Amino acid sequence: MTMTDEQPDLGESDQFIATGGQRIRVRYRPGTGVPLVLCNGIGASLEVLDPLVAALDAERPVLRFDAPGTGESPNSALPYGFPYLAWVLGRVLDRLGIGVVDILGYSWGGALAQQFAFQNPWRCRRLILVATGTGAIMVPGNPAVLRKMLTPRRFSDPAYGARIAGDLYGGSVRQRGDEVFDLMSRQLHAGSKVGYLHQLLAGSVWTSIHALPAIRQRTLIVAGEDDPIIPIINARIMNRLLPRARLSRHPGGHVDILLNADQIVPSIEEFLGKPRIGRPRRGRRGPLTPGG
Q1: 45, 76, 107, 172: the active-site residue
Q2: Which of 60, 102, 146, 195 has the smallest C-beta neighbourhood within 10 Å, fewest atoms?
Q3: Measured between alpha carbons, how far is 4 from 48 in angstroms, rounded to an integer?
Q4: Number of H-type helices and E-type strands within the chain
C-alpha cells in the first residue's frame, strides 16, 4: 500500500489490480450502500480528489483510481479508447467484488463515466457529470486556454500550474492560485508523457453526442458558469439530450468541485440519497479486501 504524508486520513486503502492488460492503482473507502466510483480529470492522480472525498458523506463507500499512465498506474502498452477503458473499469470492479455502482466523472473522467453508464445500463445506478462535455463534438473552450492543456507541465511544475491557474480554470481560482499549487502537489507522480498522450488521443476520437438519449440512468450535471475549459453551454446541451438529467449550476470554474467541495457536494449528496444498507450485489470474486 502506498501512502503519503499529505494524504488525509479518510479510512482508505490502496491496491493494484491487474486486469484487461492494465495494472490499475485503486483506492477504496469502505462504507454503507452503493459505492461511488470517481473518474478523474486528464493527467491527474487520485490524490487530487482528496477534497471531494473528504466532503462526501463519511458513510458512503468511495472508489477512485489512477488511469493508465497517471499517478502510480503504469502506461498502457497501446493507445486506448473509452469503450475499452470502461470495460477495464468493469473488470476492476469484478475483481473487487463490487456490483452495482454510482459513477461520478470529472472533466476528462466525465467521458469515461458516460461510456461506462452506456455500456453498463444495469450495473450503473446513477450518473454524475462534473465540468465535462460530449467529447470531440462539443462547444470548445478558449483556444488559448486549451493550448495550455496539450502538455502535462501544469502537473509536473506546480508553480507554473499556479501561475496559469486563473486563466485555465476560472472561478475562485482567479483569486486563489496558490491553492492550486497545493492541490497539484498532492500528486505522488505527474504520470508520464505517454500516458498523457494516450488520454488526449482517447478524448480526440470519442463523442457521446449521439448516445446520450440512450443513457437511461438518472443523471446530475454539475457545471460552473466561469469554466474556460468546458463552457456551460455544453452542460445545457447534455441536459437536453439525456432523458433523466437535471442541471446544477454554480458560479465557479473548472476545479471548484475541488476547491469549494463543501459548497458543491451537498447537491451531489442530495442526488445520491443517504447511504443505506441494502442487499449486497457482488461480483464474481468475492468482497473487496485491502491490499497493496
Answers
A1: 107
A2: 146
A3: 13
A4: 11, 8
Tens of pLDDT along 94-148? 999 999 999 999 999 999 999 999 999 999 999 999 999 999 999 999 888 888 8
Beta bridge pairs of residue 24: 17
Clarify whether 267 is annotated catalytic: no
The pLDDT score that the predictor gives to residue 232 is 97
pLDDT tens per residue, range 208-224 = 999 999 999 999 999 99
- Can you tell me which residue has the cell 487530487? 48
Task: Label the pairing between strands 62-65 and 22-29.
Answer: antiparallel
- Distance (Å, whole) CA 285 – CA 291: 15
| Cα distance between residue 86 and residue 91, in whole Å | 9
Q: Is the pLDDT of residue 43 over 80?
A: yes
**111 phi and psi, to 5 degrees?**
-65, -45
Cell of residue 74, nine digits: 503504469
> What confidence category does residue 189 fall into, taking pLDDT thresholds of 50, 70 and 90?
low
Distance CA 173, CA 15 (A): 33
How far apart CA 184 and CA 197 sit, in angstroms, is 19
CATH code of 13-272, in short, is: 3.40.50.1820
State the pLDDT at residue 165. Answer: 84
